[in-house]
Amino acid sequence: MSHKSDLIEKDILAYLKEHEQKQLVRFITCGSVDDGKSTLIGRLLHDSKLIYEDQLASIRKDSKYKGSSADNFDLALLVDGLQAEREQGITIDVAYRYFSTSKRKFIIADTPGHIQYTRNMATGASSADLAIILIDARYGVLTQTRRHSYIVSLLGIRHIVVAVNKMDIVDYEESVFNKIVNDYKDFCNEAGIDSNKVYFVPMSALKGSNVVEKSPEMPWYKGTPLMDILETIEIDDDVNYKDFRLPVQYVNRPDLNFRGFCGTIASGSVKVGDSISVLPSGLTSSVKSIVENCKETDEASAGYAVTLTMNDEIDVSRGDMIVKSDSVPEVGDCFDAYVVWMAEEELELNKAYYIKRAATKVTGFIDQIHYKVDVNTLEKLPAQKLALNEIAYCRINLSSKIAYDTYKDHRYTGSLIFIDRITNNTCGAAMIDRKNVASNVIWHKHKVEKAERCRIKGHRPCVIWLTGLSGSGKSTISNALEERLNRSGIHTYLLDGDNVRHGLNKDLGFSEADRNENIRRIGEVAKLFSDAGLVVITAFISPFRAEREMVRSIMEEGEFVEVYVNAPLDVCEKRDPKNLYKKARKGEIKDFTGISSPYEEPLNPEIEISTHELSVDESVEKILKHLNDKKLI
Fold first, then answer.
1. I need a labelling partner for 434 at 20 to 30 A (CA). Which of 98, 235, 397, 572 fits?
2. What is the pLDDT of residues 457-515, one digit of tens each?
3. Same domain flag for 474 and 421
4. Chain CA centroid to CA 592, Å
């Protein structure tokens, strides 16, 4: 559907040429149920005069059955086309609408608000440039708002417009709008979304206020209407024109004299003569010619379907990726990714699926769920399975190596889907986050097993995991505990946070991702030491419950003892043996637990020690009593 133009009648070819050159913007609408998503889209089309007369007549007719007046007909019916949607007054499936204005072409995806349709919302968001998140002015920022905003951020949408709808019901009060803006910005800080890049618009989709035309009822709003934002927001920077990526979809061999490699350029640009590499094989050559739209050209860029020929006879097949030799992506068979599960049947660990990335199709499986994300609260939870609509951070293993990027750098080459090998149904989608150092390996049993090692040592193994704020006393207690156990003939080893970062984890920083990896590695080392029959003592802040639960999950039943070394923040700051709190307060240390990064207290630790009330000896005695009671020593 297109805007009205005099050229349509006068010079249709000129009009088509003008229409062809317009920039295409894809956007989604999302929000809670009854926030007015479908009504907003209907209003955009209606006020832009983009609805045909027969459509208007049909909408007016159907609106009568819902009790709407002739002057206030239900514009949501323009989008909600399914019978169940019209009967219930909700959006179930993703509805797409196409229209254009004098400045741009648009594809709108109206996504459902119910939690059971999270997969539908993720599908609509996967190819969007911009997201409009609707908030009902009466209710403010709700759980669904947080959920949809998190998914939008996870799927790499960089432009967000928060449309505070139904302002007419709250008498267009500026204070209501300002409170919602402040609440949403607080959520952005929590979710890692840059609130400076978020647009806020007070509006009424029903009345048309600030949708296409500026609203006289809200003179206090100094911004522009929603349509102006859609027509002017810059999205060119979202396209990666630096790193050339061409997934090969087809090898074209019409005769003996021509062999070309066809595909759509996912990112970057390429010129005749550029040095290229073919992945995963690593073979190299240079570009001999570029064919685009049946014509040879010297250069082509992202979005264009092309055929490349090479100056060397190298082996290139469907599923390979052609890149410039000076900008090569990762090649591997194991990586971490965020997974959105879309199937009724639960995801099972180590179950084989077909995994498709662009034209590449291999077999793969998930062997570890690092944590599951509660998209309503953003809490990270331990998990062994994934149900429909759930999201988790997982480790994916493939049967063979592929070339890939991280999703934040390249949405197309950093994403993949899971396909059921029996039904051929798509059952999940993944956004690659980082390379995993592990590869496809099989655990080999030793001839000398754990029980035999323990029998020689004369005691059971376990992991005593001390967690708490910096300065709470973890290291002091763990050293005293190891000394007491050693004197009693117990074979021990102490893993301390600072010591481990001198060697094993010296490559890690202190971001949330690096902290998670730090604890994952420590957990794996502790498991190996436990398998050797040792009593392992660890002293780490380990601020996140999900990471501690992950370590517990890989240990045998009863062999993980969580010790919460509890000391109030002010006590820890007074102790501050390394002056870390002082530096954090000055802003010299970022993401410092207790100051600028959260600490999630254990919910049900085996032992809790209040070090501001107990001495070191009393704390050690409390741990020893528990170990004796549980017959661990």
1. 235
2. 888 999 999 999 999 999 999 999 999 999 999 999 999 877 888 888 888 877 766 77
3. no
4. 23
Domain termination residue (choose one: 271, 290, 324): 324
Q: Rounded distance, CA 459 to CA 449, Å?
A: 15
pTM beyond cutoff 0.85: no
pLDDT digit string (tens) for 565-601?
999 999 999 988 778 888 888 888 887 888 888 898 9
Spatial distance between the Cα atoms of 614 and 83, rounded to a whole number of angstroms: 67
In a shared domain, residues 624 and 532: yes
Q: Give the integer Cα–Cα distance in Å for 174 and 321.
A: 53
CATH number, domain containing residue 429: 2.40.30.10
Closest CA to 123 of 152, 83, 158, 88: 152
- Residue range of the domain that includes 148: 7-238
- List, in sequence order, every beta strand (DSSP E) within 41-195: 95-100, 104-110, 130-136, 159-165
Burial call 244-267: b when 16+ CB within 10 Å, e when fewer: bbbbbeeeeeeeeeebbbbbebbb
Residue showing tokens 């250069």:
299
Q: Which residues contact 434 (CB under 8 A, 6 or more apart)?
A: 335, 336, 406, 513
Contacts (Cβ under 8 Å, ≥6 apart) of 65:
none
Structural tokens at position 438 = 């592990």
Do residues 299 and 229 both lie within one domain? no
Give phi and psi for 191, each to the nearest 5. Answer: -95, 0
Q: For residue 607, give the amino acid letter.
A: I
**Cα 95 from Cα 136, distance rounded (Å):** 21
Q: Are 177 and 47 in contact (CB under 8 A)?
A: no
